[in-house]
């Protein structure tokens, strides 16, 4: 019996999505609720599960197509065998990979047939498939950290950097082909359609620049006290709370205190009114396979450092697995973006509309500073507050940054609410 696979409800006010990747190819056995395709909405990526156990038949849409909620995108043959499943109108991503690594080109390639068969059973997104082919790798030799063990771009790049991935037997042929192509077309180009998420991010950021009166104010902070506290208590902290003690817990607490003292930074403009919030829903920028996402720590002002670290850790795991939901991303009154984890020294972050401000954290770097008339070396970090100058004055921005600086340089303030 054939069962239709339909696009599920995507969230409040979301009516359409883009087919990001097919996770199963026609003829593949699928279990009940097993993901068969990945969809991209304006905010998150989500999987489409199989409504029944059976074999995937036809794929009715292609990767990159836009589909509406309730649209039929595939057929699952319940109880059918792989041999009798209906063929798809187009080859899947994994079929393309298998063909690329097992195409007969030389006697040596025949020895690589088993590896090619293994590769064909690995589900790859277009971006990951391209990386695997470029480096001539056996994807089955790379451990996936994505949802259900799927490979991500970070997994492939990490394996390449560490030299732990096996090279396909057909790799010399593939590399040679690439080499020949490079020799004849050194100025090659590649066009890749922007994901729906990236398009939405681009529109929102451009809208922020055109609508808000953006201004950035800087300060720096001596991280000595926080580093000392972290080194002293990190083992006990992890043993008690089951999560590592990082810097984001300290900064989030400091931000919540500063937002209370400078309420304009925690406000938003709606029409000709200003909305002030007496709670702090902190958006935190988290790296995901499809780009940067900003899940929200709700009511952060009432949370402990341990609760904040646990929440951020959970968001990181969900982002890596592509499991963040629309509810995780909705709302937020203020954003913290930590570019320092990537090595950024200084930046001017753009606000996340309709929020009015964003705090940028940067890398910690030993620098000479003057303390009590003497030049000493301290671990320093630059802080950047970008804000909508229509709502937040320079005095308020500076006061906000100084409040954070004081709390981080003397963490006791976080305990006694000072």
How would you characterize this protein structure?
With 418 residues, the chain is α+β, with helices and mostly antiparallel strands. Helices cover 35% and strands 24% of the residues. It contains 13 helices and 19 strands. It has helices at residues 93-102, 107-110, 113-120, 126-135, 153-162, 171-184, 196-211, 224-241, 248-261, 305-320, 326-329, 394-409, 412-416; strands at 2-6, 16-22, 29-30, 35-40, 45-49, 54-59, 66-68, 72-78, 214-222, 267-270, 273-276, 282-284, 286-288, 291-293, 296-297, 334-338, 357-361, 365-371, 374-388. Strands 9, 12, 15, 16, 17, 18 and 19 form a seven-stranded mixed β-sheet that branches. A four-stranded antiparallel β-sheet has the order 1-8-6-3, with no helix packed on it. Mean pLDDT is 79; it is low at 81-121 and 170-178.
Question: What's the CATH first level of the largest domain?
Answer: Alpha Beta
Please give the radius of gyration in angstroms. Answer: 25 Å
> What structural class do the secondary elements suggest?
alpha+beta
N-to-C span? 67 Å
CATH topology of the largest domain: Chloramphenicol Acetyltransferase
Number of DSSP strands?
19
CATH architecture of the largest domain: 2-Layer Sandwich
Shape: globular
Described by its quaternary structure, the protein is single chain
Name of the CATH superfamily of the largest domain:
Chloramphenicol acetyltransferase-like domain
Strand content: 15-25%
User: Main sheet, how many strands, which sense, barrel?
Assistant: 7 strands, mixed
Parts with pLDDT < 50 across at least 5 consecutive residues: 81-121, 170-178
Calculate the mean pLDDT score and round it.
Answer: 79
Number of helices: 13
Total domain units? 3
